[in-house]
Design a protein that fits this description.
2 domains, PLP-binding_barrel, single chain, Lyase, Ornithine Decarboxylase, Chain A, domain 1, 23% strand, TIM Barrel, six-stranded antiparallel barrel
């Protein structure tokens, strides 16, 4: 059996799966490219297995679409991306150390350096390296403090086996609890001027990812590294830029693997929300082992034959209960839609995120490898209700 035929049959064999729309990823990339213009590079951020969409598959798509570089956190993602895009630069965000130097060299990766101690560990390997210096402008995470940036860049420049190709930051996500994006960038501007005057300013300066790309076009600089936005997981209508994007995660589905009308011989119903005597109970082949949260909101429901069926707690490792008393036509093997369309009804990504007590990114990145990915048919137009 060829691979395409096997892919087409996967939903018939699986008890649960997610559907990824490859065309959405490419369309979102093109929308970003059109918005920022040709003078700014795009480092496509594919952390967390490309936000659950598959780092290798996405790298292949975006490499063909013309992305300038990739950003990843894990070695596993770096390997998948390098196989899919042999000649495209890959920036490793903070997360690996000098013990991985052989892979860094073999995969031709660019490492991040966040301080002098970090740098000394890499220098001890004696391996020629490509480097991006990371600065912490108020995110309180990885990166050298602004006061030490010039000294770190000077030290890097003094090493014959280092090529300092870039300097970058990620802006704070603390909202009112932290510094504003303009205040953070204001800390960097005089440092960039000083580095330029000293002849040490790297060729690529990057501070803007998904949210700041939407909110602050003035911070595009030499490059941007969008992640959530590429996958339709950022609110594109909320900023100074409005992009036409749509979620790459288009559906989450499971099959009814058990079905019965409950009976007094089972004992009285559990004293939990949703249980009632003689209810028609369906069991889906999906659970927290696939990434469904163990504690769902009271609004959690699925679609069966185009109608809503409430989720009945608790969630199990491999199973999820639903009440199909009001859907008498439901049968064993029916498809249940946790995300997506069935008949005239639809569960959107924001609706699912609310029921799962998270946000859209939390849904996509919280799904586990056990929930198989398949390609979905592309949709014809964006759906603004989904934050596109």
């Amino acid at each position: 059996m060829n691979s395409n035929a096997r892919q087409d049959l996967l939903p018939l064999w699986e008890s649960a799966w997610r559907e990824i729309d490859p065309s959405a990823i490419v369309s979102n990339y093109r929308a970003i490219r059109a918005a920022i213009g040709p003078g700014t590079k795009i480092f496509a951020c594919l952390k967390q297995d490309a936000y659950g969409c598959g780092a290798g598959k996405v790298a292949s798509l975006l490499s063909a679409a013309g992305t300038d570089a990739f950003g990843v956190v894990s070695i596993a993602d770096a390997i998948a991306v390098r196989r899919a895009a042999p000649g495209t630069p890959i920036l490793m965000y903070p997360g690996i150390g000098p013990d991985a130097v052989d892979l860094v060299r073999d995969l031709d990766l660019t490492i991040s350096v966040s301080g002098e101690e970090d740098l000394q560990g890499w220098l001890a390997t004696g391996v020629p390296l490509k480097v991006f210096v990371k600065v912490d402008l108020g995110f309180w995470r990885a990166g050298v403090v602004p006061a030490s940036l010039r000294g770190l860049v000077k030290l890097c420049a003094s090493q014959s086996n280092l090529a300092v190709d870039g300097l970058y930051a990620h802006l704070s996500e603390f909202g009112d609890a932290g510094s504003s994006a303009p205040a953070q960038v204001a800390r960097l501007t005089p440092l960039l001027d000083a580095l330029k005057a000293e002849g040490r300013l790297p060729s690529t300066v990057m501070v803007s990812s998904s949210e700041s790309l939407l909110q602050h076009p003035e911070f595009d600089m030499d490059a941007v590294d969008p992640g959530a936005l590429l996958f339709g997981l950022a609110r594109s209508g909320a900023g100074r830029r409005t992009l036409s994007i749509r979620p790459a995660l288009s559906a989450i589905k499971a099959r009814i693997v058990a079905l019965k009308t409950c009976h007094d011989s089972m004992g009285r119903p559990p004293g939990l929300p949703g249980y009632h005597p003689a209810m028609r109970l369906a069991v889906l082949g999906i659970g927290w082992g696939h990434g469904v949260p163990r504690d769902l909101g009271s609004s959690a429901s699925v679609l069966v034959r185009g109608r809503r069926a409430p989720v009945v707690p608790p969630v199990h490792l491999e199973h999820l209960r639903i009440d199909v008393t009001d859907i008498p036509e439901a049968v064993l093997g029916d498809e249940a839609v946790l995300l997506g369309s069935s008949g005239a009804d639809r569960i959107t990504l924001p609706q699912l995120a609310e029921a799962w007590n998270t946000d859209e990114t939390g849904v996509g990145c919280g799904l586990r490898e056990s929930l198989r990915r398949i390609d979905a048919a592309p949709r014809s137009k964006p759906n603004q209700e989904e934050g596109e």
